[in-house]
Amino acid sequence: MNASVRLNKEHLHISVLCALWHLYLANGKPLEFLRTIDALHGMVAKKEFHSFFNLGFNVSLSLRALTLLQVRRGDVKAAQITSDLALEMFQLSVRDSTSNFNHFKEVGYTHSHALEAMRLSRRTKSADDALVRRTLSRTLRIPEDTYPQAFETMHETFLAAAELVTPDTQPAQTPTTD
């Protein structure tokens, strides 16, 4: 597996999914946002990557957004499962990191997003609009202060997505044995 982020197919796939859910939020497409972030979650939950370091930033960012969505919906169990996955992905990312200064710095961002996902799932009873706005402003790659109109569209789409509950947009739960 190629270590370069520009040649690593696993990294590129996760990166495209992260960019795609951002695009769907920006284009006012809540169902597509849900399906894309769910697809990313499903891939990550399998933990079948050669290296987790290059994936860490986009994965942690995405899992933080998904945890927020689940808390907004009132689905505490799903939020805890997602934040636990964010923690695991952070740990795997650290395991696979290098001593390169830029890599070491990026691990900090991955840690921050995983920590905030954990806080959301464990300490938040509900996600009011102020919490959603505050969390999105730290999670989206579109800064609220630089692009207020784009951020507002993404925020509104996120809120609309939280209201949609369909079987094909629910993240995979932990497997049960029958």
Q: Could you walk me through the main structural features you see in this protein, from its secondary elements to its overall organization?
A:
The protein has one domain (9-168). The chain has helices spanning 9-26, 30-46, 56-73, 76-96, 101-123, 129-139, 148-163. It is globular. It has seven helices and no strands. Helix content is 70%, strand content 0%. The longest helix has 23 residues, at 101-123. By secondary structure, the chain is mainly alpha-helical. Mean pLDDT is 86; it is low at 171-178.
Structural class: mainly alpha
Helix percent reads 55-70%
Q: Sheet bearing the most strands, described? A: none
**Radius of gyration from the alpha-carbon trace, in angstroms:** 15 Å
Alpha-carbon distance between the two ends: 37 Å
Overall geometry: globular
What's the helix count? 7
TL;DR of this structure?
The chain is an all-alpha fold.
Secondary-structure topology with pairs:
Elements: H1 9-26, H2 30-46, H3 56-73, H4 76-96, H5 101-123, H6 129-139, H7 148-163
List keywords for this structure.
single chain; 178 residues; mainly alpha; 7 helices; 70% helix; 0% strand; globular; disordered C terminus
